[in-house]
Design goal:
Elements: H1 11-16, H2 19-25, H3 32-35, E1 56-61, H4 65-77, E2 81-88, H5 91-102, E3 116-118, H6 122-127, E4 133-136, H7 143-152, E5 156-159, H8 167-182, E6 187-189, H9 197-207, E7 214-223, H10 237-243, H11 249-252, H12 255-258, H13 261-271, E8 277-283, E9 298-304, E10 310-317, E11 324-331, E12 334-337, E13 341-344, E14 348-349, H14 360-374, H15 381-400, E15 404-405, H16 406-411
Helix pairs in contact: 4-14, 7-8, 8-15, 13-15
Protein backbone atom coordinates (compact mmCIF):
# COMPACT_ATOMS: atom_id res chain seq x y z
CA UNK A 1 0.00 0.00 0.00
CA UNK A 2 1.16 3.57 -0.64
CA UNK A 3 2.27 5.85 2.17
CA UNK A 4 -0.52 8.31 1.39
CA UNK A 5 -4.03 8.25 -0.06
CA UNK A 6 -3.98 7.10 -3.69
CA UNK A 7 -4.90 9.97 -5.97
CA UNK A 8 -6.45 9.62 -9.41
CA UNK A 9 -3.77 8.20 -11.68
CA UNK A 10 -2.66 10.18 -14.72
CA UNK A 11 -2.65 8.57 -18.20
CA UNK A 12 1.12 8.15 -18.39
CA UNK A 13 1.17 6.32 -15.09
CA UNK A 14 -1.60 3.98 -16.14
CA UNK A 15 0.02 3.25 -19.51
CA UNK A 16 3.14 2.13 -17.64
CA UNK A 17 1.26 0.07 -15.07
CA UNK A 18 1.74 -3.55 -16.10
CA UNK A 19 -0.23 -6.39 -14.58
CA UNK A 20 2.89 -7.64 -12.82
CA UNK A 21 3.49 -4.23 -11.25
CA UNK A 22 -0.13 -4.14 -10.12
CA UNK A 23 0.10 -7.51 -8.46
CA UNK A 24 3.25 -6.49 -6.65
CA UNK A 25 2.03 -3.08 -5.50
CA UNK A 26 -1.35 -4.32 -4.27
CA UNK A 27 -0.03 -7.45 -2.53
CA UNK A 28 -2.11 -9.75 -4.73
CA UNK A 29 0.73 -11.85 -6.05
CA UNK A 30 -0.85 -14.96 -4.57
CA UNK A 31 -3.76 -14.49 -6.97
CA UNK A 32 -1.53 -14.60 -10.06
CA UNK A 33 -3.15 -17.79 -11.31
CA UNK A 34 -6.57 -16.14 -11.28
CA UNK A 35 -5.30 -13.00 -13.02
CA UNK A 36 -3.29 -14.85 -15.67
CA UNK A 37 -3.78 -14.18 -19.34
CA UNK A 38 -5.35 -10.72 -19.19
CA UNK A 39 -5.59 -8.89 -22.49
CA UNK A 40 -3.62 -5.72 -23.17
CA UNK A 41 -5.34 -2.46 -22.32
CA UNK A 42 -7.25 -1.00 -25.27
CA UNK A 43 -6.63 2.59 -26.25
CA UNK A 44 -9.13 5.21 -25.15
CA UNK A 45 -12.01 5.41 -27.57
CA UNK A 46 -11.71 1.79 -28.75
CA UNK A 47 -15.17 0.88 -27.41
CA UNK A 48 -17.63 0.13 -30.28
CA UNK A 49 -20.22 2.88 -30.92
CA UNK A 50 -23.43 0.97 -30.17
CA UNK A 51 -25.79 3.83 -30.89
CA UNK A 52 -29.40 3.63 -29.76
CA UNK A 53 -30.17 0.14 -31.05
CA UNK A 54 -26.93 -1.76 -31.61
CA UNK A 55 -26.70 -5.17 -29.99
CA UNK A 56 -24.71 -5.32 -26.76
CA UNK A 57 -23.29 -8.76 -26.05
CA UNK A 58 -23.11 -9.65 -22.38
CA UNK A 59 -21.08 -12.23 -20.51
CA UNK A 60 -21.99 -13.39 -17.00
CA UNK A 61 -19.21 -14.24 -14.55
CA UNK A 62 -20.71 -15.85 -11.46
CA UNK A 63 -23.90 -17.75 -12.30
CA UNK A 64 -25.56 -18.10 -8.91
CA UNK A 65 -28.81 -16.50 -7.87
CA UNK A 66 -27.58 -12.90 -8.02
CA UNK A 67 -25.68 -13.32 -11.26
CA UNK A 68 -28.70 -14.96 -12.91
CA UNK A 69 -31.01 -12.31 -11.48
CA UNK A 70 -28.80 -9.49 -12.72
CA UNK A 71 -28.70 -11.07 -16.19
CA UNK A 72 -32.52 -11.04 -16.30
CA UNK A 73 -32.56 -7.43 -15.06
CA UNK A 74 -30.17 -6.48 -17.85
CA UNK A 75 -32.34 -8.20 -20.48
CA UNK A 76 -35.40 -6.36 -19.19
CA UNK A 77 -33.55 -3.05 -19.31
CA UNK A 78 -32.86 -3.06 -23.06
CA UNK A 79 -34.37 -5.10 -25.92
CA UNK A 80 -31.06 -5.20 -27.78
CA UNK A 81 -29.05 -6.97 -25.10
CA UNK A 82 -27.98 -10.58 -25.58
CA UNK A 83 -26.41 -12.94 -23.05
CA UNK A 84 -23.79 -14.85 -25.01
CA UNK A 85 -21.33 -16.32 -22.46
CA UNK A 86 -21.42 -17.80 -18.97
CA UNK A 87 -18.68 -18.61 -16.48
CA UNK A 88 -18.66 -19.97 -12.94
CA UNK A 89 -16.47 -21.99 -10.63
CA UNK A 90 -19.05 -24.81 -10.67
CA UNK A 91 -20.63 -26.64 -13.59
CA UNK A 92 -24.02 -26.98 -11.89
CA UNK A 93 -24.21 -23.22 -11.47
CA UNK A 94 -23.55 -22.65 -15.16
CA UNK A 95 -26.17 -25.25 -16.04
CA UNK A 96 -28.84 -23.75 -13.78
CA UNK A 97 -28.20 -20.22 -15.08
CA UNK A 98 -28.24 -21.43 -18.68
CA UNK A 99 -31.56 -23.20 -18.11
CA UNK A 100 -33.10 -20.18 -16.36
CA UNK A 101 -32.11 -17.87 -19.21
CA UNK A 102 -33.36 -20.30 -21.87
CA UNK A 103 -36.74 -20.39 -20.11
CA UNK A 104 -36.91 -16.65 -19.43
CA UNK A 105 -40.27 -15.65 -20.89
CA UNK A 106 -39.37 -11.99 -21.39
CA UNK A 107 -36.45 -12.76 -23.71
CA UNK A 108 -35.20 -16.39 -23.91
CA UNK A 109 -31.44 -16.71 -24.36
CA UNK A 110 -29.51 -19.52 -26.02
CA UNK A 111 -25.87 -19.81 -24.97
CA UNK A 112 -23.60 -22.06 -27.03
CA UNK A 113 -21.70 -24.91 -25.41
CA UNK A 114 -18.35 -23.38 -26.32
CA UNK A 115 -19.35 -20.15 -24.57
CA UNK A 116 -19.85 -21.81 -21.19
CA UNK A 117 -16.83 -22.01 -18.88
CA UNK A 118 -16.14 -23.69 -15.55
CA UNK A 119 -13.32 -23.42 -13.01
CA UNK A 120 -11.13 -20.77 -11.41
CA UNK A 121 -10.20 -19.47 -14.87
CA UNK A 122 -13.80 -19.42 -16.16
CA UNK A 123 -13.82 -15.62 -15.98
CA UNK A 124 -11.02 -15.51 -18.54
CA UNK A 125 -12.97 -17.70 -20.97
CA UNK A 126 -15.89 -15.26 -20.78
CA UNK A 127 -13.60 -12.26 -21.30
CA UNK A 128 -12.07 -13.91 -24.37
CA UNK A 129 -15.49 -14.18 -26.00
CA UNK A 130 -16.99 -11.42 -28.15
CA UNK A 131 -18.65 -9.63 -25.24
CA UNK A 132 -19.06 -5.92 -24.64
CA UNK A 133 -20.41 -5.92 -21.10
CA UNK A 134 -19.69 -8.13 -18.11
CA UNK A 135 -22.17 -8.92 -15.36
CA UNK A 136 -20.10 -9.87 -12.35
CA UNK A 137 -21.91 -11.90 -9.70
CA UNK A 138 -19.19 -14.02 -8.10
CA UNK A 139 -18.67 -13.95 -4.32
CA UNK A 140 -16.97 -10.71 -3.19
CA UNK A 141 -13.54 -12.22 -2.57
CA UNK A 142 -13.03 -12.66 -6.31
CA UNK A 143 -14.23 -9.23 -7.41
CA UNK A 144 -11.04 -7.11 -7.29
CA UNK A 145 -9.16 -9.58 -9.51
CA UNK A 146 -12.00 -10.16 -11.96
CA UNK A 147 -12.89 -6.47 -12.20
CA UNK A 148 -9.30 -5.59 -13.03
CA UNK A 149 -9.17 -8.30 -15.69
CA UNK A 150 -12.42 -7.10 -17.27
CA UNK A 151 -11.24 -3.50 -17.54
CA UNK A 152 -7.89 -4.67 -18.93
CA UNK A 153 -9.83 -6.62 -21.55
CA UNK A 154 -11.76 -3.50 -22.57
CA UNK A 155 -15.16 -4.53 -21.20
CA UNK A 156 -17.84 -2.46 -19.53
CA UNK A 157 -18.82 -3.92 -16.15
CA UNK A 158 -21.83 -4.30 -13.92
CA UNK A 159 -20.45 -5.60 -10.64
CA UNK A 160 -22.34 -6.65 -7.58
CA UNK A 161 -21.48 -5.12 -4.23
CA UNK A 162 -19.29 -5.21 -2.20
CA UNK A 163 -16.26 -5.04 -4.47
CA UNK A 164 -13.69 -6.34 -1.96
CA UNK A 165 -13.29 -8.04 1.42
CA UNK A 166 -10.10 -6.35 2.64
CA UNK A 167 -8.33 -2.96 2.32
CA UNK A 168 -5.88 -4.28 -0.29
CA UNK A 169 -8.76 -5.29 -2.54
CA UNK A 170 -10.65 -2.02 -2.03
CA UNK A 171 -7.58 0.02 -2.95
CA UNK A 172 -7.06 -2.05 -6.09
CA UNK A 173 -10.66 -1.37 -7.17
CA UNK A 174 -10.07 2.37 -6.76
CA UNK A 175 -7.08 1.99 -9.04
CA UNK A 176 -9.08 -0.05 -11.55
CA UNK A 177 -11.85 2.57 -11.51
CA UNK A 178 -9.34 5.24 -12.52
CA UNK A 179 -8.17 2.99 -15.31
CA UNK A 180 -11.76 2.53 -16.50
CA UNK A 181 -12.22 6.30 -16.68
CA UNK A 182 -9.16 6.64 -18.89
CA UNK A 183 -10.36 3.79 -21.11
CA UNK A 184 -13.88 5.24 -21.41
CA UNK A 185 -15.35 2.12 -19.81
CA UNK A 186 -18.32 1.85 -17.48
CA UNK A 187 -18.41 0.41 -13.97
CA UNK A 188 -21.84 0.33 -12.37
CA UNK A 189 -22.29 -1.33 -8.98
CA UNK A 190 -25.21 -3.21 -7.47
CA UNK A 191 -25.93 -0.41 -5.00
CA UNK A 192 -29.35 -0.07 -6.61
CA UNK A 193 -30.65 2.51 -4.13
CA UNK A 194 -28.59 5.09 -6.01
CA UNK A 195 -30.81 4.40 -9.04
CA UNK A 196 -34.11 4.47 -7.14
CA UNK A 197 -36.12 7.65 -7.96
CA UNK A 198 -37.42 7.93 -4.38
CA UNK A 199 -33.91 7.88 -2.93
CA UNK A 200 -32.59 10.19 -5.66
CA UNK A 201 -35.23 12.86 -5.12
CA UNK A 202 -35.01 12.68 -1.33
CA UNK A 203 -31.23 12.90 -1.42
CA UNK A 204 -31.43 15.87 -3.79
CA UNK A 205 -33.55 17.70 -1.23
CA UNK A 206 -31.23 16.72 1.62
CA UNK A 207 -28.23 18.02 -0.29
CA UNK A 208 -29.94 21.34 -1.04
CA UNK A 209 -30.48 21.80 2.71
CA UNK A 210 -34.08 20.80 3.32
CA UNK A 211 -33.19 19.21 6.69
CA UNK A 212 -30.43 21.72 7.39
CA UNK A 213 -26.97 20.53 8.36
CA UNK A 214 -26.80 16.78 8.95
CA UNK A 215 -25.82 16.21 12.57
CA UNK A 216 -26.37 12.46 12.92
CA UNK A 217 -28.08 9.35 11.70
CA UNK A 218 -28.80 5.67 12.09
CA UNK A 219 -28.80 2.76 9.68
CA UNK A 220 -29.83 -0.87 10.09
CA UNK A 221 -29.90 -4.24 8.39
CA UNK A 222 -31.31 -6.62 10.98
CA UNK A 223 -32.90 -9.89 9.87
CA UNK A 224 -32.91 -13.64 10.38
CA UNK A 225 -30.57 -16.34 9.14
CA UNK A 226 -29.90 -16.65 5.42
CA UNK A 227 -29.21 -19.88 3.55
CA UNK A 228 -26.42 -22.22 4.64
CA UNK A 229 -24.72 -25.12 2.85
CA UNK A 230 -23.76 -28.16 4.89
CA UNK A 231 -20.40 -29.72 3.93
CA UNK A 232 -20.44 -32.89 1.83
CA UNK A 233 -17.85 -35.70 1.95
CA UNK A 234 -17.00 -35.26 -1.74
CA UNK A 235 -16.29 -31.54 -1.35
CA UNK A 236 -12.83 -30.24 -0.55
CA UNK A 237 -12.43 -27.43 1.98
CA UNK A 238 -12.14 -24.91 -0.85
CA UNK A 239 -15.28 -26.14 -2.63
CA UNK A 240 -17.35 -26.08 0.54
CA UNK A 241 -16.21 -22.60 1.47
CA UNK A 242 -16.93 -21.31 -2.04
CA UNK A 243 -20.40 -22.89 -2.01
CA UNK A 244 -21.08 -21.73 1.56
CA UNK A 245 -19.40 -18.41 0.95
CA UNK A 246 -21.58 -16.20 3.15
CA UNK A 247 -19.92 -17.61 6.25
CA UNK A 248 -16.21 -17.08 5.56
CA UNK A 249 -14.65 -13.65 5.85
CA UNK A 250 -12.06 -14.21 3.12
CA UNK A 251 -14.75 -14.62 0.48
CA UNK A 252 -17.80 -12.70 1.81
CA UNK A 253 -16.28 -9.99 4.01
CA UNK A 254 -18.86 -10.93 6.71
CA UNK A 255 -22.44 -9.67 6.54
CA UNK A 256 -21.56 -6.12 7.59
CA UNK A 257 -19.64 -5.89 4.31
CA UNK A 258 -21.68 -8.19 2.08
CA UNK A 259 -25.14 -6.88 3.05
CA UNK A 260 -24.99 -3.84 5.34
CA UNK A 261 -22.93 -2.00 2.71
CA UNK A 262 -26.26 -0.92 1.18
CA UNK A 263 -27.12 1.17 4.24
CA UNK A 264 -23.59 2.48 4.73
CA UNK A 265 -23.50 3.51 1.07
CA UNK A 266 -26.57 5.67 1.69
CA UNK A 267 -24.83 7.33 4.62
CA UNK A 268 -21.76 8.05 2.51
CA UNK A 269 -24.05 9.44 -0.21
CA UNK A 270 -25.75 11.76 2.28
CA UNK A 271 -22.47 13.05 3.74
CA UNK A 272 -20.74 13.29 0.37
CA UNK A 273 -18.00 10.79 1.20
CA UNK A 274 -16.73 8.23 3.71
CA UNK A 275 -16.43 8.62 7.50
CA UNK A 276 -13.22 9.56 9.26
CA UNK A 277 -13.40 6.81 11.89
CA UNK A 278 -15.19 3.70 13.10
CA UNK A 279 -15.65 2.41 16.65
CA UNK A 280 -17.37 -0.97 16.67
CA UNK A 281 -18.31 -4.07 18.54
CA UNK A 282 -19.89 -7.36 17.59
CA UNK A 283 -19.83 -11.06 18.15
CA UNK A 284 -21.05 -14.55 17.43
CA UNK A 285 -23.72 -15.57 19.90
CA UNK A 286 -26.12 -17.82 17.98
CA UNK A 287 -24.50 -18.90 14.71
CA UNK A 288 -21.76 -20.90 16.37
CA UNK A 289 -21.91 -24.19 14.47
CA UNK A 290 -19.01 -25.11 12.15
CA UNK A 291 -21.33 -24.74 9.14
CA UNK A 292 -21.48 -21.02 9.96
CA UNK A 293 -17.76 -20.63 9.32
CA UNK A 294 -15.96 -17.79 11.08
CA UNK A 295 -18.26 -14.77 10.67
CA UNK A 296 -20.07 -12.78 13.36
CA UNK A 297 -23.86 -12.71 13.67
CA UNK A 298 -24.17 -9.11 14.92
CA UNK A 299 -22.34 -5.78 14.70
CA UNK A 300 -22.85 -2.29 16.12
CA UNK A 301 -20.55 0.48 14.89
CA UNK A 302 -20.33 4.23 15.46
CA UNK A 303 -19.08 6.06 12.35
CA UNK A 304 -17.90 9.66 12.63
CA UNK A 305 -18.08 11.82 9.48
CA UNK A 306 -15.85 14.80 8.62
CA UNK A 307 -18.33 17.36 9.98
CA UNK A 308 -18.33 15.61 13.37
CA UNK A 309 -21.72 13.95 12.88
CA UNK A 310 -22.07 10.44 14.30
CA UNK A 311 -23.95 7.61 12.61
CA UNK A 312 -25.02 4.57 14.60
CA UNK A 313 -24.86 1.46 12.45
CA UNK A 314 -26.35 -1.91 13.36
CA UNK A 315 -26.65 -5.21 11.52
CA UNK A 316 -27.72 -8.66 12.67
CA UNK A 317 -28.56 -12.08 11.19
CA UNK A 318 -30.27 -14.04 13.98
CA UNK A 319 -33.55 -15.94 13.72
CA UNK A 320 -36.34 -14.97 16.09
CA UNK A 321 -35.28 -11.31 16.32
CA UNK A 322 -37.03 -8.14 15.15
CA UNK A 323 -36.18 -7.13 11.60
CA UNK A 324 -35.31 -3.61 10.51
CA UNK A 325 -33.75 -2.48 7.24
CA UNK A 326 -33.64 1.31 7.00
CA UNK A 327 -31.69 4.55 7.15
CA UNK A 328 -32.46 7.73 9.10
CA UNK A 329 -30.82 11.16 8.97
CA UNK A 330 -31.10 13.94 11.54
CA UNK A 331 -30.58 17.56 10.52
CA UNK A 332 -30.79 20.95 12.20
CA UNK A 333 -34.15 21.64 10.48
CA UNK A 334 -35.68 18.22 10.15
CA UNK A 335 -35.22 14.49 9.69
CA UNK A 336 -35.24 12.23 6.66
CA UNK A 337 -35.95 8.67 5.70
CA UNK A 338 -33.99 8.56 2.43
CA UNK A 339 -36.54 6.12 1.01
CA UNK A 340 -38.80 9.11 0.37
CA UNK A 341 -39.89 11.01 3.50
CA UNK A 342 -38.72 14.29 5.04
CA UNK A 343 -40.21 15.75 8.24
CA UNK A 344 -39.56 19.24 9.57
CA UNK A 345 -39.67 22.71 8.06
CA UNK A 346 -39.80 21.39 4.51
CA UNK A 347 -41.84 18.17 4.68
CA UNK A 348 -41.87 15.87 1.70
CA UNK A 349 -43.24 12.48 0.74
CA UNK A 350 -42.22 10.92 -2.53
CA UNK A 351 -44.95 9.87 -4.96
CA UNK A 352 -43.97 8.30 -8.30
CA UNK A 353 -45.16 10.10 -11.43
CA UNK A 354 -48.40 8.51 -12.66
CA UNK A 355 -48.12 5.99 -9.80
CA UNK A 356 -45.51 4.10 -11.84
CA UNK A 357 -42.95 2.62 -9.47
CA UNK A 358 -39.50 1.94 -10.89
CA UNK A 359 -37.64 -1.29 -10.17
CA UNK A 360 -34.17 -0.08 -9.15
CA UNK A 361 -32.65 -3.50 -9.96
CA UNK A 362 -33.66 -2.91 -13.58
CA UNK A 363 -33.09 0.84 -13.58
CA UNK A 364 -29.42 0.49 -12.70
CA UNK A 365 -28.97 -1.55 -15.88
CA UNK A 366 -30.99 0.96 -17.92
CA UNK A 367 -28.73 3.73 -16.71
CA UNK A 368 -25.61 1.67 -17.36
CA UNK A 369 -26.63 0.76 -20.91
CA UNK A 370 -27.82 4.28 -21.73
CA UNK A 371 -24.44 5.62 -20.62
CA UNK A 372 -22.61 3.12 -22.81
CA UNK A 373 -24.75 3.96 -25.82
CA UNK A 374 -24.20 7.69 -25.29
CA UNK A 375 -20.43 7.29 -25.17
CA UNK A 376 -20.38 8.76 -21.65
CA UNK A 377 -20.12 5.63 -19.49
CA UNK A 378 -20.98 5.80 -15.81
CA UNK A 379 -18.19 4.96 -13.40
CA UNK A 380 -19.22 4.11 -9.84
CA UNK A 381 -15.99 2.24 -9.11
CA UNK A 382 -14.43 4.56 -6.55
CA UNK A 383 -17.79 5.31 -4.98
CA UNK A 384 -18.58 1.64 -4.30
CA UNK A 385 -14.96 0.95 -3.27
CA UNK A 386 -15.21 3.68 -0.62
CA UNK A 387 -18.49 2.27 0.69
CA UNK A 388 -16.96 -1.20 0.71
CA UNK A 389 -13.97 0.06 2.66
CA UNK A 390 -16.30 1.84 5.09
CA UNK A 391 -17.95 -1.49 5.88
CA UNK A 392 -14.56 -3.24 6.12
CA UNK A 393 -13.41 -0.57 8.57
CA UNK A 394 -16.45 -1.27 10.74
CA UNK A 395 -15.80 -5.02 10.63
CA UNK A 396 -12.13 -4.65 11.50
CA UNK A 397 -12.98 -2.37 14.43
CA UNK A 398 -15.47 -4.92 15.77
CA UNK A 399 -13.14 -7.87 15.18
CA UNK A 400 -10.24 -6.23 17.03
CA UNK A 401 -12.05 -3.96 19.51
CA UNK A 402 -9.97 -1.04 18.23
CA UNK A 403 -11.10 2.36 16.97
CA UNK A 404 -9.93 2.77 13.38
CA UNK A 405 -9.40 5.89 11.29
CA UNK A 406 -10.11 6.18 7.58
CA UNK A 407 -6.60 7.47 7.02
CA UNK A 408 -5.12 4.36 8.65
CA UNK A 409 -7.23 1.81 6.82
CA UNK A 410 -6.67 3.51 3.48
CA UNK A 411 -2.96 4.12 3.81
CA UNK A 412 -1.49 1.76 6.40
CA UNK A 413 -3.50 -1.46 6.66
CA UNK A 414 -1.82 -4.51 5.13
CA UNK A 415 -4.76 -6.89 5.59
CA UNK A 416 -4.97 -9.30 2.65
CA UNK A 417 -7.42 -12.21 2.98
CA UNK A 418 -6.48 -13.86 -0.31
CA UNK A 419 -6.19 -17.66 0.14
CA UNK A 420 -2.78 -19.28 -0.40
CA UNK A 421 -3.89 -20.71 -3.75
CA UNK A 422 -6.98 -20.76 -5.94
CA UNK A 423 -7.34 -24.51 -6.23
CA UNK A 424 -9.55 -27.24 -4.83
CA UNK A 425 -8.02 -28.85 -1.78
CA UNK A 426 -7.38 -28.18 1.93
CA UNK A 427 -8.18 -24.72 3.26
CA UNK A 428 -8.29 -24.47 7.06
CA UNK A 429 -10.94 -22.14 8.43
CA UNK A 430 -9.41 -19.06 10.04
CA UNK A 431 -10.21 -18.64 13.76
CA UNK A 432 -13.22 -16.58 14.75
CA UNK A 433 -12.11 -13.07 15.66
CA UNK A 434 -11.85 -12.20 19.36
CA UNK A 435 -11.92 -8.48 20.26
CA UNK A 436 -8.86 -7.54 22.25
CA UNK A 437 -6.93 -10.54 20.92
CA UNK A 438 -7.30 -10.42 17.14
CA UNK A 439 -4.51 -8.18 15.85
CA UNK A 440 -5.12 -5.06 13.81
CA UNK A 441 -3.27 -5.58 10.52
Amino acid sequence: MPDQQPASLDPATLEALSRRQFLKSSALASAAAVLGGCAALPKRGAVPPFGDTGTINVGVIGCGGRGTGAAKNCLEADPNVRIVALGDLFEDRVASCRKALAEYEECPQTIADDHCFVGFDAYQGVLDCDVDLIIHGTPPGFRPQHLRAAIEAGKHVFTEKPVAVDPIGAWSVMETADMATLRNLAIVAGTQRRHDPAYIETMRRIHRGDIGDIVGGQCYWNQGLLWVKEPKPEWTDMEWQCRNWLYFTWISGDHIVEQHIHNLDIMNWAFGGPPVSAYGMGGREVRTEPKCGNVFDHFAVEFVYPNGARVQSMCRQIDGTSSRVSEHLVGTRGTADPRGVIEGRRPFEYAPPNDEWVNPYVQEHRNLIASIRSGQPLNEGRQVAESTLTAIMGRMSAYTGREISWDWILNSSKLDLTPPAYEFGPLPVAPVAVPGQTPLV
